[in-house]
Amino acid sequence: MRPIRVLVAKPGLDGHDRGAKVIARAFRDAGMEVIYTGLRQTPEQIVQTAIQEDVDVVSMSILSGAHNHLLPKVVKLLKEEGVYDDILVIGGGVIPDEDIPYLKENGIAEVFTPGTTTTTTIEFIKANLKKSIA
After folding, report:
1. Which residue in 76, 129, 83 sits closest to 106, CA to CA?
2. How many helices (H) and strands (E) does the chain have?
3. E strand intervals along the chain
4. Which of 26, 29, 33, 104 meets the CB 3.0–4.6 Å disulfide criterion with 118?
């Protein structure tokens, strides 16, 4: 069985990546293969990296307040490329509770806010993968 491949992405102009690096390390320690995009990625760059790396999960971390625009745009582009049905898309960061339903309606499978344990996120990924890992 191959490891779960996770893309950890930082969309938009957010310049803080400590949380993304913490979650990337937790994913790696859980046996996942992690690809980290680095800071200031456009939705288009995130989608192209997800396709090139054949990832199972796109995990986006955002603190800038642009989550209602950027996260659904990544989903839209994944759908346009025909790969959304194979990729679990999750988000995390400083996202107000009142914005979470909108994000879920727009294709984000789950949103993890500050204080969520890395174990919770890892268990969610393992339980909700869209394609089997053979």
Report:
1. 76
2. 5, 5
3. 5-9, 33-36, 57-62, 88-93, 110-112
4. 26
The amino acid at 75:
V
In a domain, residue 97? The reply is yes
Task: Evaluate whether residue 16 is within a structural domain.
Answer: yes
The Cα–Cα gap between 2 and 114 comes to 30
Residue 6 backbone dihedrals phi, psi, to 5 degrees: -120, 130
Task: Provide the whole-model pTM.
Answer: 0.95
**Cα(116)–Cα(35) distance, integer angstroms:** 21
What CATH number is attached to the domain comprising 12? Answer: 3.40.50.280
Cα–Cα distance for residue pair 74/26, rounded to 1 Å: 23
The answer to the question of residue 133 being in a domain is no
Return d(Cα 31, Cα 3) in angstroms, integer.
Answer: 6
Report the largest interatomic distance among the alpha carbons of the chain, rounded to a whole angstrom: 39
Q: Pick the closest to residue 96 from 76, 68, 74 (CA basis).
A: 68
pLDDT digits (tens, 9 = 90+) for 65-96: 889 999 999 999 999 999 999 999 999 999 99
Q: How many domains does the chain have?
A: 1
Taking the C-alpha atoms of residue 8 and residue 48, their distance in angstroms, rounded to an integer, is: 13
